[in-house]
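Human: We require from you a standard protein entry with sequence in single-letter code and fold as tokens, and nothing else.

Assistant:
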Amino acid sequence: MNRVDLIIVGAGPSGLSAAIEASRRGLEVIVFDENEKPGGQLFKQIHKFFGSKEHRAKVRGFNIGKQLLEEADEAGVRVILNATVIGLYQDKEVVVRIGDEVVHYKADAVIIATGAAENMVTFPGWTLPGVIGAGAAQTMMNLHGIKPGKRVLMLGSGNVGLVVSFQLLQSGCEVVALVDAAPRVGGYGVHAAKVARTGVPFYLSHTIVEAEGEDHVTAVTIAEVDERFQFVPGSEKRFEVDTICLAVGLSPMSQLLKMAGAEMEDNPKRGGQVPICDNHGRTSLPGIFVAGDVSGIEEASSAMIEGRMAGIAAAEYLGYTDAETMQSDLEQLENALDGLRQGMFAPKNRGKLIEKTEEGIDISLNLLEKGYVSDDEIERYPGVTHRKGVHPVIECTQNIPCNPCQDACPKKCISIGKDITSLPIVVDDCDCINCGMCVASCSGQAIFLVDEDCGDGTATVTLPYEFLPLPEEGAVGNALGRDGQVVCKAEVVSVKTAKAFDKTYLLTMRVPKEYAMKARFFKS
């Protein structure tokens, strides 16, 4: 029997964060993970995270993964990979299959950080090769460098469906449609907007009727659904595709906790069967803690904080830190986690239709129903301003927890204020120096630098660009509007980047000045 102070199951963002905190307080920590590489979902995440500095905002997920691995190594955490935990028994005995060997470990405390599994939906043809989960698509693209397909239909408009749709476009796939049975977009509006302006059509209140093909997917038919989610006759639409990507939610992987006898509940708002636990991850079983998606589906930023809290709570449980110190440490983390749980997408608002922002501004119905803010709606938001010369135009229209733009501007031209979910504003009497830091730092790619009148009948628009191959200076193409439709011809003025931009390029295009506030994407 092998003995350690703390066993952690899962080397994802929450598990590694818990291991780091516990090890730094003197515990002997071992982490088991069934995968070949540690880091969980982080190494699939090539987009920049939301939040603030304390949440590692504007850092790409895979870089956060590298940071956590380095911190775990420095703290002396032992990570064993290709190790599947197959049992959690009395007295915190853990049974692990490592290769062909079954090994028993015993610990004084256990943290379960097993994450979640993708949900599936069934329809005629759903077992055909080419029907895959969004997580599988991310694995193929971002871990193995393989395109999942050439023509893809995405089912699901939550953050996962929106983010993966954009990454499919980045990998060179054509996303023929983004479909959801719900009547409105489920994820962040900025994620939807960056997909919509590339030309991907949204079909809300639609779902899949059937997939066609013999040995692989060759086509898919969707149809509109009514308020009872029944197909509307005559509304069918057919697309020739070779891939159908499903992003229809996640379910906590809580089987080990059930096996151990922890008190469980069926909580749809938390994703399904989850353990009953307190705010610091303590379950009904003394010495057994949880962190991350296994205790309720949230973003990776929240999972990391929950992991840190569970690691600290486990250290106090085993006597490696006193209650007073623990409480001080946890209070800081609680404040950070509370910041992420505010705004329109807070857990308490799940399933609700929010009609106004915190500032009392009407939410864009077009954004919710079609994926983009219409030209006549965009002017109502405080970040959309008109000035002489180059100035930022911030098309952030929902209260989400994010503020990197405020810190990025060296001239303090952008302000969000103390509340991380407030809509950003452009500060009066502030001189923009056209450095582009705000554009590159925006995790939602919702900031543009605009010169509405260059004096020769043209305007320039600088936008974030993360596609290859990069257009060359002088290239002529089409400027697309927020709806992804061609609005005018455009010429590339420059394409530049810098180390601080973290692989985001700033593409500046010249357009007729009457399209300065409409042109939002360049297509060769």
Notes: The chain has a mean pLDDT of 95. The first strand starts at residue 2 and ends at 9. The chain has twelve helices and 28 strands. Residues 300-317 form the longest helix (18 residues).
